[in-house]
Amino acid sequence: MSKTIRVVAAIIRKDGKVFATQRGYGDFKDGWEFPGGKIEEGEAAEDAVAREIREELGAEIKVTGFLTTVEYDYPNFHLSMDCFWAELEEGSKMTLLEHEAAKWLSPDELDTVDWLPADVEVVKRLKNC
Hints:
This protein has 129 residues and is of the alpha+beta class. 19% of the residues lie in helices and 43% in strands. It contains two helices and seven strands; from the N terminus they run ββββαβββα. Strands 1, 2, 3, 4, 5, 6 and 7 form a seven-stranded mixed β-sheet that branches. β2 (17-23) and β3 form a beta hairpin. The longest helix has 13 residues, at 45-57.
């Protein structure tokens, strides 16, 4: 049985677009994803997503709701990803601290980047919103 990794992702919205980031490291380097990361032991998912955005993008967000949980089997582990709607706090700016690139994507631009497998499931959900 493979191990389960619990992570969170922020679907940051602004002016009808969502924020996507390109990984700059690891096995999935260059793949596109919604920013986020691992939940620390004893940490609430909403707190984890705000902390991860602070660490990865130097920005403060406000979590505005829950979108979905994606369960995805990668070759070496099972991913359980809680995805939350979020908005940037007033005056907060994002800086790419861990990613190679980032884009604001409108709904009709969602298919223009090469999403990581688990994030493909989120994109499908977004198209039905």
